[in-house]
Amino acid sequence: MNVWQRIIPAKWTDEWLERLAWAGPQNCAVTYLPGRKTARLEVYALTAAQRKKLTREFGGRAVSKPQASWLAPQRRAFVLPLPPWLCLAARAAAIPPKYRRLPRLIIPAGLAFGTGEHATTGLCLRQLLKHLPAGGGARVLDAGTGSGLLALAASLRGARVTAVDYDADSIATARANARLNAGVPPVTWRRADLLQFKPAGQYTLLVANLFADLLVKALPRFKQWLAAGGTLIVSGILRGQEAAVAAALRKERLTVSARFRKGKWICLVAKL
Ligand SMILES: C[S@@+](CC[C@H](N)C(=O)[O-])C[C@H]1O[C@@H](n2cnc3c(N)ncnc32)[C@H](O)[C@@H]1O
What we know:
It is built from 8 helices and 14 strands. By secondary structure, the chain is of the alpha/beta class. It has 2 domains: about 1-65, Alpha-Beta Plaits; about 110-270, Rossmann fold (3-Layer(aba) Sandwich). The protein starts with a strand and ends with a strand.
């Protein structure tokens, strides 16, 4: 896999991630080293030409990494308890006894974004669970499903779920995760570009953990796909990009009802 690396001042991380937004936040990794003012920035899944361009513009170095090393940081077992009712883990055996009675999703590290460790996934998951009616009956679209985690959580909560991603590896991983979580009702998986996707109907809740530029472009479509009174949850927005996304929401007459921040990441909840 083509990777580009550069050492950056840790305090400029946000600016670098904004600059590299075109590569997709899921492909950028920043490693902070304890006690150091610098961090290692890496961009994955580049074409050879993109990697060359980055090296020409910003220095740094181009490296080739086997896929296994890309996954290595995610391999450790993790458990994210989500009170009051869901437990996420990479392996069933990793769940501490006190969480074992909770309904759970097993999401191992795979080729797709979304094991629950990333701030934006956690932000979306919490809002998703909060806005799904306890008795089920919601119609949910997971726009940019990655590992399928959000779609599977919504389905486990009784929603009828469609999940879309344009990346073949993501859809394959999401399907594999669905098989691993056999108790979860079926999700409709669709491989499609969100800027071309044609939904079969409208949704009461749409969750989109993407990146700011794409959200701004896709918002007019998302609005059409939402049923009256529907809820839109968007994340993958860096702090410096929030104003642009908020303005696009206003333009579509979607009213922001809540805002959440984790580190440099923002999640907005809006209503139609
Ligand atoms: C940041 S990941 C989010 C994954 C997961 N929903 C989560 O919250 O962890 C964004 C996902 O959107 C997909 N994606 C990006 N642009 C897309 C587009 N134009 N159409 C469909 N999927 C897209 C990527 O392939 C990736 O799997």
